Every structure is written in structure tokens, then in C-alpha cells.
Amino acid sequence: MNTPMTKSLLALLLAVTTFAIAPTVPAQTTAQTTPIDGIAAVVDDDVILRSELDRAERNVKSQYAGHESQLPPEDALRKQVLERLVLARLQLARATALGLRISDAEVDDGIARLAASNHVTAAQLQQKIASEGMSYDEFRKSVRDEMTVQKLQQKVIESQVAVSDTEIDNELATQRAGGPQIHLAHILVALPENPTSEQVKLAQTKIDGIRDLIVKGKMDFATAAMRYSDSQNALEGGDLGWRSADEVPPAFANTIKTMKPGDVTASIRGASGFQLLKLIETRQAGQVVPKQVTEFHALDLMVKFGPGVSSEQAKAKIDALRAQLVAGADFATLAQKESDDTETRSKGGDMGWFPVDGWGTAVAQQVQQLKDGELSQPFQSNVGWHLIKLLGTRTTDVSVQAARDAARNAILRRKSEDQYDNFLRQLRSEAFVDIRLPDAG
User: Fold this and answer.
1) Within a 10 A sphere around the Cβ of 236, how many other Cβ atoms?
2) Quick count: other Cβ atoms within 10 Å of Cβ 188?
3) Residue extents of the structural domains in the chain
4) What pTM does this model have?
5) C-beta atoms surrounding 133 within 10 Å
6) Nearest residue to 153 via CA among 415, 429, 432
7) Under CATH, what is the fold of the domain 179-285?
8) pLDDT per residue as tens digits for the range 252-310
């Protein structure tokens, strides 16, 4: 499903984050008209304010501007948004308990990547956010929270999910055989752990009723997912994206093999509850095409400029360091002592093997001009002055490793989805959550 979006850059950026804060509403000017904030939910030792819920709900609605009819009824939407906020708080709390942190530098990198993907600079992004009424500090917090949860997900998955070389080989064999890829959507009616027979019966009745609405044409699948699904991707119409046939859980695989695009399964009992699956479309998997690239191995020494250090001062220092290298100083020793590049300093400036664009445009221009063993002249990037010493070049067929990495990620995604869903259900069941809104309980 292609989620409708407004033309607003801010709405586009907010759509990629779970915790994004909607543009703030101007405060009322008198005490008589200023609303008193209330508590929407208590989550362990934390609270979610009604104002937070209001902002999050407005953010979802802004993404569907002009397509509001696709959203669930107001009470159902509010309940779904509140549940997302509850799970967000629980995940952030667990990440904090595990000592997971996102540094300011990581947030800066994340925002820079977000800006680049939308073809604007970080400064332009900041100006755009301000022009649309959102605090940049709040935006940074939303990005930090999103990255924190991603780190938690990675930790949970890495500790509980493994992918063997044999599984990767089998996945690649399927791809080489031209196996199909499928685009799926799903609706979940969740069951608690160890459900009672009455809970199972009610869930079965609900999922069958939802399917009845769909097959009789009273509601399309995406709208039904938004209104009734208990899945985390309900507000995305239950869209599961593209995956290979091997990425489908075994409980569903045989059923999907007989389906045509547009078909909806009967209800299927899975680990998390009852599900409906819709086959949206199919395509043939792309074949692995050999790709030869030139890689470079180099050493880097950088003198950073910024607050307290001008570009001229940094240039003078890099010139002096180059003179030491020309006079016979050891590059690795000097880099460990003097370099401001935190990624390479501890390794004596060693950048490892990388493709020409692996370290940005400025480095790319240098390594293509140097001979093996040659030291560059000082050159400037957007963060400082650099010296590069080229150690060697090689030609590598990256298609093989890229294909194995893609296969591993596909298998990992298949395994990790159920694993992390189980983690979230356990997290939610163990928490104290008191919903304070009558229309969201």
C-alpha cells in the first residue's frame, strides 16, 4: 500500500520516525482558554500526557491529509496511537535499563542521512522544521528515540536470532532458480500468552467478521487493517512489503503458494494470534549480476576545525604534521597521537578497504590521484583538514558478498519479526499500564 502523504517536507520526514512530534499548536493567550493537560496513560513510573497523544494523533492525520477516509474512526485511531506511544515508552525504558545510548554525533549523522535522502542540507532541514512550527530540539529527541529503539531491536535480535551459512546458501539457490518474490499485507487479531478457550473463540469470531467485510466488498483490506488489526503496522494498512517465498513463515507458506494477487486467506492461527494475509502482487527475484569495483586501502590523519579552532589554525597544524611524515615519522604513531578522526585514530589512521565513495567526495578525489605508498597533500573536507596515505588498491567482485549479505538480511528479517513481536508482547504484559482515556481503553 502506498500511504498518502502531504507535500510538506516535514510530514515526509516525520513519517519515518515512530516518535516524531507533530508541529506545535500556538498556546492560548489567556488563562481562561488555556487547556489543562491531563494524563492519557500511566506506563510503569512514567506518564503519557494528553497533549502528547494529541500531537501524535495530529501527526498521523497530517500524513493522510486529503485521504482522511482511509483512517479508522476517531476512537479506534486514538487507541492505536496511544498503544504505539505506550510501546515506545516501554522500549525506551528497556533500552535505558540495558545501558543503550545514542550519542549527539550519532543523532547528527542520522539527521544528515535523513536530510540527504530528501535532497536538502541539514541546515535547510533545520530551517524547514522551524518554518513549519516545530522545535528542532523536539525533532532531535524524536530522532534519538527512534535510533535508540532501533538499537534495542538490534540487540534483542542479535542475542536471540542466528543465521547459518547453510541457510544463506539455500536462500541464494532459490534466487538463482528464479524463485518468486511476493508482496503481502496482513491483519492480526492478537491473543495473549496462554489464552483461555473463550479468548480464542472471541478472536476467531472477530477475524472471521473482518474477513467477511473484506470479501463482501464492504471494506478494502488496507482500511480493515487500519481499523481492526492489532499489529504494529496497522496504520500502514498491514503492509509487509516484498519478501521471497522462503521469508514467509512455514504456517503460511503452503497457503500462499496457491493464491493469486488480490486473494485473501482464511484465518490462520499463528504464534501471536489469528491472521489474514492478502497477496498484493508477485514478481521474479532479480538475478545476481557480477560487479567489479576498485577498492582502496589507506591511512587517514585529520585535524578538525570548528569552535575554538579556525580553518587556518587546522591547516597550519596539518602542514606541520605532513612535514614530520616526510621527514620519516611513522604515520600510525602520529595518527594515534594527533588525529581528530575518532573512527580511525585508535587504529593508527587505518581506514581499511573501501570503495571509492566509501569515505566521501573529498577522500575519493585524493585516492584516485595517488599511487600506492604515496602521501597526499593536505586537503579540506567539511569537518577538517586531512592527509591520506594510499597503501594499496585491488579489484573485487562485490556482487557475491552483496548477494550473501542481502540473503542473510532477508532470513534475519523473517526470523526476527516474530521474535521481536514476542518480545514486545512480553514487555507489554509485564508492564503496569493504566489507560486514563475512556475512548482509548
Assistant:
1) 18
2) 23
3) 9-25+36-160, 179-285, 292-398
4) 0.56
5) 12
6) 415
7) Chitinase A; domain 3 (3.10.50)
8) 777 888 889 999 999 988 878 899 999 999 887 655 556 688 899 999 999 998 888 89
